[in-house]
Every structure is written in structure tokens, then in C-alpha cells.
Amino acid sequence: MAKAKTVKSVKARSEKLPKITVKEYKKIIFLGSEAAPFIATGGLADVLGSLPKELAKKDNLDISVILPLYGNISDEYKKQFRFLTNFYVSVGWRSQYAGVFFFEYQKVKFYFIDNEYYFKREGNIYGFYDDGERFAFFSRAALDTIARLNIYPDILHCNDWQTAASIIYLKGMYYGDDKFRRIKTVFTIHNIEYQGKFGMETYSDLFGFPDSIMSFVEYDGLVNLMKGAIEMTDIVSTVSPTYAGEIKYPFFAHGLDPVICRNERKLVGILNGIDIDYYDPKTDKSIFAKYSAADISGKATCKAELQKMLGLPERNDVPVIAVISRLVSHKGLDLIKDIAERLLSEDVQLVILGKGEIGYENYFRYIAESYQGKCAAIIAYNQDLSRKIYSGADLFLMPSKAEPCGLSQMIASRYGTVPIVRETGGLNDSIKAIVGDMGNGFTFHDYNSNDMLYVVKQAIDAYRNKDEWGKIVRRVMKTDFSWKKQAEKYEEMYNK
Ligand code: GLC
Fold first, then answer.
1. Is the dihedral of CA 487, 489, 493, 496 positive or negative?
2. Ligand 1 atom nearest to 46, measured from its CA
3. Which of 90, 292, 392, 416 could bond to 306 as cystine, CB 3.0-4.6 Å?
4. pLDDT per residue over 337-365, tens digit each?
């Protein structure tokens, strides 16, 4: 009886108090292998360059990012980095030097892990015979940095296989330490195709994992870092709701579907955003003329100058269709190969920018050679040129076989270049078919080149209807792909 009375009186008292919601203060550390503007080879860099920045705008969040200190980070930034500390990290039976540098940029604290042997290399940042060892070192050095600098976060947010080992070390080896045990982890899959698989001989020799966690980390007779992280993390997220559903199936999961299904209860899909200040035709210094949704006239100049630059006839009445992509199979390039000649028999211009697998590179060189004056192919990764194409083209073709999120369709939209996409992954969540006054692009469902050609022709017809087309372009430009809304969803997830 007495107990019930107390509860009642406490309740009565608290009802009189004014309601204030106190936002919980949280410290979040992101780990990743690339982040714009320091080092960028793909979409991951865009995300790690813009999501932390958006979250850091909130005063209840303290945001840091830990990255490797690659030799190819430009001196313009490097000279501003401040040395903090150094120590030795165990990588299997070895002990390797790690230096830590610091730089605060756009309210985000960046920590860079220095080891010249691992990260000062010529050319690319991945694709070396010892990538497993390089990122095992990085993943462990990141945890040791946290301990050394006493910057224990509430949440450690790891991205892709290169940082998956951090979760495995944290949950499997650092757990005895109270401060580490309190850390919750998020593992984000940006692409399930790249899992970080290595021979079992690396298990203890290289990674130094204990036998007790072998059932989490081993898969199909290999060390599989992504699989280990999925099993051991608190939350698994991926970069679009549709992809979160797709990776439960073998067609998309590259062997991990049973693992995803087993861990389904901790799976979340949140669509990426883009940095709308970084990609803005109103201020972009790379493009030939500035414009906005309110006044798109500058886009015509961008088109004419692009045509001139690429040796295509300067015609305002012909649709320019652009493909800007890594030239790899999951981008759906086989569909384009299938219909390229049929498409080029129409009155169109086709522009391709990208590099990747040699077979595709050669094919696009060949087709540009055979259709001079109608098709241009630039086999390169070139940020400046990509912006000139995003702004100068009319249509953007992205028929991916699988697409975790995809950012190019959003960037193209921002520049008023209307996307044509296959309804998969993030393409399905970001681009809705145009019907009447609704929709922001052209879409098709099956992975079939005839279906694709059919909608490409629909898009060309729409383009020819000048009045309608202006409306479509403006509507597409106004689609909100900013991080603002999406960052809220991340915050919700962290609060869980
Ligand atoms: C990967 C995915 C791409 C996604 C990007 C950022 O590059 O392939 O779809 O947009 O990561 O999450």
C-alpha cells in the first residue's frame, strides 16, 4: 500500500513540472578508408566527407573521423595537420609504428593514422597484395588511438570491410576493458561485394584474432572481415532501404545472404544524401556557366561548351546522354553495350566518362572511334570533367545491376540532368518515374537491354517536347537530396 502511494505522489509532482526534452549528448567516431576532400576514389569518400559534417552541426553531437594518412593526401591539407602522439600497434606477431595527426575541419575532428610503410605508396590507395595487413593495422591503430587519447565514444561507426576488423577487435579482444565495453558499434555496408576475404592462415598470424571468436569471423573456409563485423556489431546499416531488403537474397548478397538473414533484426537501411553546397550549379567553379532551378538558361552554355570541348557538333536540339561511372560489371554496362549501336542510330549524342575493367574501357574507346561526332568516351576518373558533363548533359543513364545507393543520379539531378535508372537499391529509393506532374526521372525494372532502350526512347521523346522538358528539368533540380533529413535518421539510429 505504502509503495503505491509514493508512486502516485511522485507522478502528481512530476506532472506539474514543465516538459523539457533534453537531447542526449553523444560522442561518435567514424572509421573509414577514405573521406572527401582529403582522399577520394568513390562514393564512400563523399559520404564520409558529408554525413559527419552534417551531424556536427548539432550541438549535442561530438563528431570525429579516423582515417589513414595516405601519402597522396594533398600538402595543402597535410601542412595544417598537427602531430599528437605515437605508439606501437600489434599486427599479429609484429609491432608497427603508428603516429597520430589531428585536423579540425568544418567542425569535425579528423585523426590521421601515420605509417609510411603501409600508406605512403604510389598510385591507388587499394589493390596491394597486403591490403589485409594494411587495414588490420589501421583498424587496430584506431582503437589504440581512442585509448591513448582518451576519446572513448558512445558509438563507433565503421564503414566497409577496411574497418570491419575494428569491430571484431573491439567486441572480441578489447572487451575486458570497461571503457571499450561501453562503446556501441554500427557497421555500414556501402557495397556487399567487397568483403575483405583472406586465407585462414592469416587468422592469428596476421590479424591476431583469438580462437574463441572463430565461428564469427570464418566463412566458407576463409577469414571474412565483413561477415565478422555483421555478426558482432550492435547495428548493421546499409545505404538505402531497398538495398537493405535486397541483400537478403543471393542475387545481391555475394554469398552473405544467410548471414544477413540471421542478423536481420539489427539491419537498418538509410538513403545517403549529397553535399548540396559542394555540388551546386549556382557556385560550381568547374562548369562553363552558372545556373539554378530559378533560372536554368546557363545550362545551354554548359551544353554548347561541353560539345565543343569533346568534338561533338554544337547542337542545342540533340539530347546529350551521359554515363559517368566506374567501368565495372555491377554498374550495368552490359546493357549499354547491348544497345549502344541501336541507340547511336538515333539523333543523339552519347558521352562516357570513367575507368575500370579493361574490357569495358576498350569497348567504349571502340564505340567512340566508330561513331565520331556522336559519341565521346573519356577513359579516366576526373572530378572537374565530371562536373562539366553533369552540367552540360540532358540525360543521365545509370542502369546498375546492383546499386547500394548511388550518388551520381543525385548529383546529375542537382545539375538538372534527368536520370534514367534501373529500379534497384538506392536508385529505386531516389528516382521515381515521371507520370504527369510527378516524378523525377525515367525508370525500368528488369535487367534487360530492350526494356532499358524503351525508356531511353521515352526520355528522348520527352526531351523533344521543349515546354514540358523545362518543367521536368526544374522539378528534378528541386528534388531534396541534402543530408539534412537523412542525418536525422542516423541520429535516430544512434539513439537506439
Ligand atoms: C558504394 C556503393 C554506392 C554508394 C556508395 C556510398 O560506392 O557502390 O552505391 O552510393 O558506396 O554509400
1. positive
2. 6
3. 392
4. 999 999 999 999 999 999 999 999 999 99
Cβ atoms of 87 and 148 closer than 8 Å: yes
Amino acid at 111: Y
Going by C-alpha positions, the residue among 391, 386, 383 that lies closest to residue 289 is 391
Close Cβ partners of 300 (under 8 Å, ≥ 6 residues apart)? 316
Nearest Cα residue to 153 out of 228, 239, 229, 52: 52
Instruction: Please report which helix (H) or strand (E) contains residue 375, including its range.
Output: strand 375-378
Q: Which of 251, 250, 249, 202 is nearest to 225 (CA)?
A: 202
- Cα dist. 160→239, 355, 396, 485 in Å? 11, 22, 27, 23
Mean pLDDT of all residues in the chain? 95
Sign of CA dihedral 335, 341, 346, 350: positive
Distance (Å, rounded) from C-alpha 492 to C-alpha 496? 7
User: In degrees rounded to 5, what are phi and psi of residue 352?
Assistant: -120, 130
Report which DSSP code applies to 247: T
- What's the CA gap between 231 and 419, in Å, rounded? 36
Give the CA count within 13 Å in the CB-facing half-sphere of 268: 20
How many whole angstroms separate alpha carbon 337 and alpha carbon 331? 12
Largest Cα separation within the chain, whole Å, is: 91
Closest CA to 334 of 314, 301, 364: 364
pLDDT above 90: percentage of residues in the chain: 93
DSSP letters, 333-373, are HHHHHHHHHHHHTSS-EEEEE--B-HHHHHHHHHHHHHTTT
CB distance 392 to ligand 1 below 6 Å:
no
CB atoms within 10 A of CB 247: 26
Q: Whose CA is nearest to atom 12 of ligand 1?
A: 190
Buried b / exposed e along 287-317 (16+ C-beta atoms within 10 A):
bbbbbbbeebebbebbbbbbbeebebeeeee
399 lines ligand 1 (CB under 6 A): no
* Whether residue 404 has its Cβ less than 6 Å from ligand 1: yes
State whether residue 214 is helix, strand or coil. helix
AA letter at 258: P
pLDDT value at 414 more than 50: yes
Domains of the chain, start order = 26-273+486-495 (3.40.50.2000), 298-480 (3.40.50.2000)
Q: Is 403 in the pocket of ligand 1 (CB under 6 A)?
A: yes
Relative orientation angle of helices 131-149 and 164-172, to the nearest 10 degrees:
50
Instruction: Quote the ligand 1 centre to 51 CA distance (angstroms).
Output: 13
0.90 exceeded by the pTM?
A: yes
